[in-house]
Amino acid sequence: MAETYREKITALIGLLQQPDGLLEAKETLRGLIDRITLKAPEPGAKLAIHLEGALAELLMLSMETKLQTGAMTESGVWAV
To answer: Is 0.70 surpassed by the pTM of this model?
Structure first.
């Protein structure tokens, strides 16, 4: 499964670097996202964004790795 995601992300990066690859890149991104939910914040709070799908899983894995190595600060972590 990791290899499949790696291939999709590699293809997506390639598409984003091509001037005529934007439409296909959008479709690839849509295939990695199941749902996006926006939650209204309390007054003075930041908007909460909840992402579901393969892209969310990849981002969480990336964040866990960065947090374990100490490369990401608390301000860089998103609130869900």
So the answer is: no
Domain ranges, ordered by start, for the chain: 1-32, 34-80
DSSP per-residue string spanning the chain: -HHHHHHHHHHHHHHHTSTT-HHHHHHHHHHH-SEEEEEPPPTTSPPEEEEESHHHHHHHHHHHHHHHHT-S-GGGSPP-
* Residue 29 · residue 12 · CB < 8 Å: yes
* Phi–psi pair at 13, nearest 5 degrees: -60, -45
Q: Which pLDDT band holds residue 74 (cuts at 50, 70, 90)?
A: very low
